[in-house]
Design goal:
single chain; 239 residues; alpha+beta; five-stranded antiparallel sheet; four-stranded antiparallel sheet; 2 helices
């Protein structure tokens, strides 16, 4: 009786098969790792965006109310103007030279001017040395004896996971000639005020905020916003 010969895989074929299989498995692991890292990076970017957006929203909300002077005394009226146009003693909004700090006033309790310490507010970028290592944060001013950016009690309201790398404010004022409007109320409003005119300034504040993750500094984002101040600044006589 003749037995049929049977042949299997040679050692070389087996080794080649294992090599090809290893390459396929390694490629799958690499692809899976890339997807995991991509999802993690996307999640971290979203977290950074949410944190920066929350800080931007706080600044917009407060700056919109800058200059609020509810029920300030009638003695602040200029006698030559309509009673509804007031010389608002809380209208000041100022920037420092670097334009990374803004200070303003809000009459919180309908008191008489001048503003009290808890009515002198502001936002700025500052270095917080309580972190190790120290990092730049956004601070909000709670109270102050003066109006400059260096004075007062400032509180950090930046997430521990985020570092602020840049903060810029800019103020755009649109002048409205109140004197010309009173003389010719049916004519278009003149957006120019000469010396001696009564002028109402409508103000818009642009904010540009840049931050990054402390754990991954390469993940950085910049957000911009614009807010219109509800309380116009009035000057009875332009110098």
């Amino acid at each position: 009786m003749q037995l049929s010969a049977e042949s299997g895989l040679s050692l070389i074929e087996l080794m080649l098969g294992l090599l090809v299989g290893s390459i396929v498995v390694a490629g799958g692991i690499h692809l899976y790792s890339n997807n995991v890292n991509l999802n993690k990076t996307t999640q971290q970017r979203n977290t950074l965006n949410q944190d920066l957006r929350a800080m931007l929203d706080v600044m917009q909300r407060d700056l919109r109310r800058a200059g609020f002077a509810a029920n300030h005394p009638d003695s602040n009226n200029d006698g030559s103007l309509d009673a509804v146009i007031k010389n608002n003693p809380f209208a000041l909004i100022e920037l420092n030279t670097e334009q990374n700090c803004i200070v303003y006033l809000i009459n919180k309790n309908a008191n008489n001017p001048p503003a009290e310490t808890n009515e002198r507010l502001g936002f700025k970028i500052d270095v917080d040395t309580s972190f190790r290592p120290a990092k730049s944060v956004i601070r909000m001013r709670r109270s102050s004896q003066g109006l400059d950016c260096e004075s007062g009690i400032w509180e950090n309201f930046t997430s521990p996971e985020v570092e602020i790398t840049a903060l810029q404010f800019s103020i755009n004022e649109t002048p409205l000639n109140v004197t010309a409007f009173k003389q010719n109320p049916t004519n278009p409003v003149i957006q120019n005020c000469a010396t001696g005119d009564a002028c109402l300034y409508r103000r818009n504040i642009a904010i540009r905020l840049t931050g990054r993750l402390v754990a991954r500094p390469e993940i950085q984002q910049t957000l911009s916003a614009s807010v219109t101040v509800r309380n116009d600044r009035f000057i009875a006589h332009v110098p």
